[in-house]
Amino acid sequence: MLLLRSERGRGVEGRDGAVRGLDALCQQVIGCRRCPRLVRHRERVARQKVRRFRDREYWGRPVPGFGDPRARLLVVGLAPAAHGGNRTGRIFTGDRSGDFLYRALHRSGFANRPTSTDRHDGLCLVDCYVTAAARCAPPDNKPTPVELRRCRPFLLKEFALLQQARVIVALGQIAFRACLQTLEALGLHPPTPRPRFGHGEFASFQSGLVLVASYHPSQQNTQTGRLTDAMFHRIFQMARRYLDAD
Question: How many domains does the chain have?
Answer without folding.
Answer: 1
